[in-house]
Design brief:
The protein is mainly beta. About 5% of the residues lie in helices and about 45% in strands. It has one domain: Nucleic acid-binding proteins (OB fold (Dihydrolipoamide Acetyltransferase, E2P)), CATH 2.40.50.140.
């Protein structure tokens, strides 16, 4: 009987499946926060054309992601007013957007 109870228990909290998204960091100017753009494809209901839609999420970043990096974010508890995601891993380093500083010193 005791063995049957152990086998039917719910999953522990650490093993639960969390919603994951993969996107590109578009802003990284805040402290420990990045804005990640996630693209998805949807089909137009009338014209049946596939359209690219982009959603942006604010994510907590302890990994040090920079603008242009491809990252995996996972859903988490609310961390602030807008942050409900956290950066799980950096999948690839991107080329950071070059700021217009070339003409500033001339």
């Amino acid at each position: 009987m005791a063995a049957e109870k152990d086998g039917n228990e719910a999953k522990p909290k650490a093993a639960r499946h969390r919603n994951e998204q993969v996107g590109v960091v578009v802003k990284a100017k805040m402290a420990k926060t990045v804005v990640v753009a996630v693209e998805r494809l949807v089909r137009h209901p009338v014209y049946r054309k596939t359209i690219k839609r982009t959603s942006t999420f604010m994510a907590h970043d302890e990994k040090g992601a920079k603008a242009g990096d491809k990252v995996r974010i996972v859903e988490t508890r609310p961390l602030s007013r807008h942050k409900r995601w956290r950066v799980e891993e950096i999948l690839g380093r991107g080329v950071a957007a070059v700021e217009d500083t070339a003409g500033a010193g001339v």
